[in-house]
Amino acid sequence: MTSLEIRPYDPSCEKVWDHWCAGTVNATLLHTRRFLSYHGDRFNDASVLVYDGEKLIGLLPAAVSPADAAHVVSHPGATYGGIVHDGRLTGQRMLAAFDAILGFYRAKGFSRLLYKAVPHGYCTTPAQDDLYALFRLDARRIRCDLSSTIDLANRRPLSERRRRSLKKALKSVCISSDIARLPGLWAVLHGNLERKHGARPVHTLEEITLLASRFPELIQMRCAVIDETVVAGVLLFLSANLWHAQYIASSEQGYAVSALDAVFDAVIEEAGDRGARYFDFGTSNEDGGRVLNEGLYGFKTEFGGGGMAHEFYELSF
User: Fold this and answer.
1) 144 part of a folded domain
2) Does some domain include residue 88?
3) Residue 143 belongs to a domain
4) Are both 186 and 118 inside the same structural domain?
5) What does the pLDDT read at residue 130?
6) CA distance 102 to 84
7) Separation CA 26–CA 127 (nearest Å)
8) Which of 105, 138, 171 is the last residue of a domain?
9) Residue 17 to residue 10: CA distance in whole angstroms
10) Does 134 share its domain with 155?
11) Which pTM does this prediction carry?
12) Fewest C-beta in 10 Å: which of 105, 164, 277, 281?
């Protein structure tokens, strides 16, 4: 292998970047420029492309930390980042890629890299050579979140409570996949977060509508409807290997009839039928991962799932 070259991302690389993502073993829509560009100028981009001679071998989506101009994050606008590759950036080659990337950032005046590893469930083949490289480079694991994930080929049985709730829900709701109902779901989500946490969704309705229009096959919605009113639902981010519940919401009317049970029953079955390996409910953490919302995590695992870690590492140059 020749000496690796790191090239900074610029808009002229957009097509090359997204074409590469489509052929990798661990990229999802969150790694693409089509997704990251919706942030506009919210972040100061610091993404890089890794070349071996004239051959592209990897990408790292990244931006300058909004809290510290000497800190690079992969990526502050996404749940996870990480080096994406086509399955051949393994072993010593991954170590060489990290060495080159760190050298590039060091020369630019940065002092730290926060690396959000891609959880294993998103990878179409094992691709955790980056975690080994981080160990070799004395990276410090600074955070770990826990997501509830179902292995669709080896799903654990539903809990008895979920069975009872599903039976109740199926008597009351209809399931819709019509993306035109997205405003109704967002109203439920907004009301739910405001009522319980005094918070708002990370994405506005306008932002999520834009993203859904950019990725109609990968960003989808399933909701429970009573008398043409959305009472519960989930917004899904799809990848080749995993369907992820990005947002989950229910109104008080939806809770009364256990509407989410009907939504998840339909979505989990559909994910398996369409060839996904995993269905992921998302994390249930607070306080930088150090607090686990046991009630929420318990609810999710009762559908037949287990734990998948989201790991965060920090490298000082």
Assistant:
1) no
2) yes
3) no
4) no
5) 98
6) 16
7) 7
8) 138
9) 10
10) no
11) 0.94
12) 164
Measured in residues, the chain has a length of 317
Whether residue 132 is predicted with pLDDT greater than 90 in this model: the reply is yes
Q: Is the pLDDT of residue 40 over 90?
A: no
Residue 154: CATH number of its domain:
3.40.630.30
Domain co-membership, 127 together with 232: no
Instruction: Please tell me whether residues 186 and 252 are part of one structural domain.
Output: yes
Structural domain span for residue 105: 4-138
- Amino acid at site 317: F
Q: Is-contact 271 226, C-beta < 8 A?
A: no
Confidence of residue 198 (pLDDT cuts 50, 70, 90): confident
User: Is residue 317 in a domain?
Assistant: no
Q: What is the reported pLDDT for 2? A: 62
